Amino acid sequence: MTIHIGANPGDIAETVLLPGDPYRAKWAAETFLSEVRQINNVRGMLGFTGLWNTHPVTIQGSGMGMPSLSIYVNELIRDYGAKTLIRVGSCGAMQKNIAVRDIIIAMTASTLSTPSRGIFKELNFAPCADWALLRAAVAAAEKTTNPLHVGGIYSSDVFYDERPDLNEQMTRHGILAVEMEAAELYNLAARHGVRALAVLTVSDHLITGDALPSDQREQSFGDMIEIALAAAFSNG
Q: Which residues have CB under 8 Å from 133's CB, separation 6+?
């Protein structure tokens, strides 16, 4: 066991999906995995392990923001041997050609700061996704009916943003969407030599103000879970 994950050795699979919301982790595990068992409930941050097409998978909540995700990802990699980590979550679109329910696969994640800033100091490190995972996720997403967008996203330190000038520049430079965790996930994956990817569903739009109704989120979010699982176990 670690400070934040109460799992025993062997309880956590090498493949881990990381929704921010622990209750979304519970829903995803019960919906997509078989032989599910809860392996963590420390501080209410639920984690579950089960099987997807005979493959062991853990779905662990990571909380909101990069500092929270950093805690869980560090422990998952260093103490439990996780090798493939895929963030599955919501995001806010920043381009007019993107709509709610669309799928975004993040090649890169820009940010003002991450918990890794203290290591990089003056270096503006450019964290990116694992290429094999990204390629497999794109192939899986193209088999669905969801519009797909692949490119750079922005991982923000704050939810209630008051920097319209910065948002304007990111939109100008083609950033697809904003969320709060992927950049640090990509940093940690690079540091520890493991695979990482972020597969996101657009839940709202910063330009148009559109938002996905709460009663429709689970069905829409289910598609990104399937894409992430297919990518994790692709042989391509």
A: 84, 86, 195, 196, 197, 231, 232
